[in-house]
Amino acid sequence: MAAVRDRRALGERWLPPDDGWERVDALDDAAWRDLVARLDASDAAVERALRGAPPTRLAGSEKLLHFLVHHDVYHAGQIGLLRRA
């Protein structure tokens, strides 16, 4: 989410130094809650940016926004499958 927000702000050629991957060394309950909280905060930041942007600012962002939605749905499906396993 942050990568999408920052990429839109900084230009299409920008990529984060780690390609947007978060390193997870251990996944206990506290680490999981922290990851979910960070995801929620990132979602909220993207939503605020979209709500506050004039339509002219969003022009040309359609592919990036579609990517964001598809990316989240894909990973939500993965999480659902892992939780069921």
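[next item in queue]
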Amino acid sequence: MPRRMGRPGLMGTMARTAVIAGTATAVSGAVKKKGAQSAAQQQQAAAAQQQAVAAQQQELADRAAAKAVADVQAQQAAAAATAPPASEDRMAKIKELGEMKTQGLLTDEEFAAEKARILAG
């Protein structure tokens, strides 16, 4: 058969179309793959940043809680240092009751009842 010059025949056109379609598919797949990898990297970076922020917030909360506990302990220590001992306070009340009994303001029964209440309390 004589060879034709000029434009390709049906088989040549089909072959060229198949090559172009295959190339386009390969390029498209590579672009999609690269885009998916980029999106995954961005998600990982965002997750890492969120974890870092959460860790900072937790650290700040822990510090604030520790400071609050230390403040409360300091206040309790200061209050304990300035408060008179309970035994001295009881003795003063009993002495006052004794003076009231001596002055005749309390009976023996009232004195005994108040003394027992002070010592129990």
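[queue empty]
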